[in-house]
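Contributing new records

If you add data, match the layout below exactly. Sequence lines come first and carry their own label; structure lines follow with theirs. Keep one chain per record. Anything else will be rejected by the validation script.
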Amino acid sequence: MEVFLMICCHETTIFTNVKEQSNDDGKTLGECSFTSQRARPQAAAPVELAFRADEAFEDLCIEPFSSPPELPALCDEAAGLRKQRQ
């Protein structure tokens, strides 16, 4: 089965898919709670990536996604008219 992941590091986001049986430190992704039921294409499992610097990992720094702009009033009115017709 495939597992879909969203890997985040700073301002970079990578979407990828891997086999659930992929091993890491002797454990499968399924044993680490990354299963095809929990990490689907429409809801990828988030993974935060930190690089190792000398003997310690860097601090996690994940930039939030930007919010979409508000819809113009004309779009809201058109949506309201469609609902009235139904």
